[in-house]
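Blinded run. Sample ID left blank on purpose so nobody reads anything into the name before looking at the predicted structure. Input follows.
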Amino acid sequence: MLRVYVNVIIYNMSLYIVSTPIGNRKDITQRAMETLFSVDLIACEDTRKTGWLLASLSDKKPPQMIPFHENNKEKQAAYIIGYLQQGKNVALVSNAGTPTIADPGFKLVRECVRLSIPVLTIPGPSAIIAALSISGLPTDKFLFLGFLPKKEGKKRKILAAAKDLAATPLSPTFIFYESPFRLLKTLKLMKEVLGDVEISICQELTKVHEEVVHGSLDEILRQIENKKIKGESTVLFKLTVVRS
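Blinded prediction complete.
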């Protein structure tokens, strides 16, 4: 059974993975808007942020929203599965970008696949792809590392593994997210483990204070040594151009 809403088709008992803007609200797609206002339930990382987004996009009353985040994902996943099995449809959104990418939701999607519950994608913004497209680094092969571990020892092991991989024919462009509170320390560790690699850092993409810097790791360290970092950064680097 299905229902048609303007230009979007909503299939009953389906989970929709809906991408939302990473900054500029105008980046939302028409299909994403139509889906979000047509499903029975929206599971979101932060109901307040999603509520503000929907209110800024339309005067229509949005569907019911429930929180779905790292701290309640097990309990809420069971609830969402039960809700879907009643023949309802659910949209999953994160605070920004594409859900399940460095974000809770993977296990929910896997369980839906196991139970033969349809999972449909409503593609759109992604900080990874947006940053890669303007980085000036090779885009033919890339490896996303998510958020690097907080502990230095574990972070060092990942960077060392990246260096080993760069010596193989794969040799991708590496991408990871980093907190503004750990960025400088992480870059200094990168210099210690990897040397003076070519790097690109993207901050506040599509927002008012968007900033993208390119250069050698040494150059960028000098630029941000005494700078206040705002928001999470998307960091990209390529090890085939190590200068040390």
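Unblinding after everyone has recorded impressions. Residues 2-124 form a domain with the Cobalt-precorrin-4 Transmethylase; domain 1 fold (CATH 3.40.1010.10).
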